[in-house]
Amino acid sequence: MAMALTSPASLGCSRDVSFGAAMRGPVVPRELFKCRLGFSLRISSASPVVKACVSAATTAAPTYDTPRTTSGEKSNAERKTCRLALPSKGRMAEGTLNLLKDCSLPVRKLNPRQYIADIPGLKDLEVWFQREADVVRKLRSGDVDMGIVGYDVVAEFGEDDPDLLLVHDELEFGECHLGVAVPTYGIFESINTLDELAAMPQWTKERPLRIVTGFTYLGSKFLQEKGLQHVELSTADGALEAGPAMGTADAILDLVSSGTTLRENNLKELEGGRVISSQGVFVASKKALLSRPGVLEAAHELLERFEAHLRARSQFTVVANMRGESAQEVADKLFQFTSNHGLQGPTISPVYVDGGGKSVVKYYAIVICVAKPDIFKAVRELRRAGGSGVLVSPLTYIFDEEPLRWRKLLEKLDMM
Question: Beta-strand (E) ranges in 119-243?
Answer without folding.
Answer: 125-130, 146-150, 164-168, 176-183, 209-213, 231-235
